[in-house]
Amino acid sequence: MQPVKAHVKDGRLMLDEPTSLPEGQVVYLQPIEGFVVAEIEDRDADDRAALHADLEASLIEADAGETIDFSAAIAELSVWVYRESTARSSELRSTTISPECESARGLLCAS
Questions:
Q1: Contact 6, 16 (CB under 8 A)
Q2: How far does CA 99 lie from the centroid of its chain?
């Protein structure tokens, strides 16, 4: 089931759209203050369809056990971010990055 969105009105939580949950079903809600949430309503129909297709594909991969360790994903992302920032920096200035710039966490720097 997709997450549901609600607003507080007169001290009560009001769902923004109907739900298929059975009558009397208990649900637990937690505010998401402090998080940046992309409003799906701001997307056009094609973007929403693509997003839902990507999410469905991700769920199928997860159900099939086709996942990677979170720390490995963060490490890979960190390397990518470093390489991107280095590439952009080198466009502004001409410098050579030494191969000794390997961090304490074992992440490889851009070459």
A1: yes
A2: 31
